[in-house]
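Checklist before submission:
- one chain only
- standard amino acids only
- sequence pasted in full

Submission:
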Amino acid sequence: MTARQQFDADGFYIARNLLDAGVVDVCAQDIHAVFAQQVALLGLPDAGDLFGNARALHGAHIEQFKKVLAALWRLQSVGALLNAAPIMAVLKKVFGFGPVFVPGGQTVHVQSAELKIPGGYFGLKAHQDWPSVQGSLDGLGVWVALCAIDANAYPLEVVPGSHRRGLIAPAGNQTSGLWVVDALDDAAFVPVCVKPGDVVFFSNFLVHRSGLAGRSDFVRIACSTRFDNGGEPSFVARGLPSAYTRAVQRELMDFADVDAVNRSLPGGIAD
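Returned file contents:
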């Protein structure tokens, strides 16, 4: 069975060893460095590993932890990884993409029982990605693990073949926020087991969720993005839309006024 045949049947395809594991590790090291920097800022001892430093920051300053999580997707190494030439080649050669559009940005997924955010994120319920994108009808998600993931490591869980059902109405017709799909039994979901260097390509109509089974003293780190096919007729006819919006906040966020900014500049300002 070819890669495209497997994708058409299951709604996803795992390209094993598509990326150099060393390139993937650059992302993991950058994320570790970000947490280590925050731990040092708080005067806490360096735990020496990503999980230890993330747990230290989580325990000491949950609001700062949340800010760091929200910032990780902006790491250049994450964007470079998810837009790497081997991934682009698969989009073109296997899936027949024309011009490749990126409807939003990247996402970094951090999941661990010890890193739960009170009242917040701990994995996503069953859903399809298309309502969050609304771009090309053959749009894809790309998911890359930064660590080895098995069935007991908070895996991505998918329902093979569910993409053939098209768009599924959300539970309770709640269309604001995540379109949760609750019409499928737990037994229908299978874990996607991967290692660094593997890349998961999946249809934006594939039902998937975050696995909640994970061992203690472990953090699952993965990153993902979505791609639209600039050659898909419906997408072209609709004017290349995206459900994502772009906004800029120009009001000062972390400084009281202009003088506060200038006092913080390295070396000060000219008289």
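Reviewer check: Residues 28 and 146 are 6 Å apart (CA to CA).
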